[in-house]
């Protein structure tokens, strides 16, 4: 299952991120945006210069999307925001869960029509299925979908926009589903089993799609990254130097570099010395696979 293709894993940004996540490649300026959720930091990494610039958002940040109008859409502790990192300007859009102070936003993705999706979860243990997916439309209305989630994660869309992938990372669930997606209305169909991650070492975390239609996901707590074919078969396993990889994203001018965020907290006791780079941003070169361009929020 592990490919024989020669490739290299390099540390792109040495970091002790608590929960590195949310990687999004900007093909217009060839930079990678990513976040540290509990620290409320939004980073942008420029591979050409090696510079990683950090912005303090002021609260937990689960996921982000580039915006056609400029700046970012942010799914944070207090709901959806517009944010311009260069000026610091923030505009609150809506908090869909004002009565759930223990929840925060987690993973998110933008569909091919420019709608932004993100899911909520309980931040502090004990874990409870208090999460829900929300769709932020371009007119800034917010619509809930599929409640009672523990840790909504792994959301991506197929290149044609007609399939939505989504997962729940909770150890009792650790499942990835697909839903047929109505591109005109942004309405997902009934979830169907895509892959049960009990078959591999890692639980499902952040994900991305490659140009061959395969689903790549970070196997959190499993030291691995996986590629799953559209038929639900694992055809590639990549061993990582950290226990908790969290989000893969293809980038580079040719979309042939796989960037992977990672988590620096909650490591298995006794493994710390084996993973001094936990929390860093990694770059995988030479995989022989390319990604797809990431849609921007159109509102």
Give me the secondary-structure category: mainly beta
- Describe the largest sheet: 5 strands, antiparallel
- Summed over residues and divided by their number, the pLDDT gives a mean of 97
Multimeric status of the protein: single chain
Strand content of the residues, in percent? Answer: over 45%
Order of helices and strands: EEEEEEEEEEEEEEEEEEEEEEEEE
Gross morphology? globular
Number of strands: 25
Helix segment count? 0
Radius of gyration: 17 Å
**Helix percentage:** under 10%
Which helices and strands, and how do they pair?
Layout: E1 8-13, E2 20-26, E3 31-36, E4 41-46, E5 51-56, E6 61-66, E7 72-76, E8 79-83, E9 90-94, E10 103-110, E11 116-122, E12 131-136, E13 142-149, E14 152-157, E15 163-168, E16 175-182, E17 187-188, E18 192-196, E19 203-209, E20 215-220, E21 224-228, E22 234-239, E23 245-251, E24 257-262, E25 281-285
Antiparallel strand pairs: 1-25, 2-3, 3-4, 4-5, 6-7, 7-8, 8-9, 10-11, 11-12, 12-13, 14-15, 15-16, 16-17, 16-18, 19-20, 20-21, 21-22, 23-24, 24-25
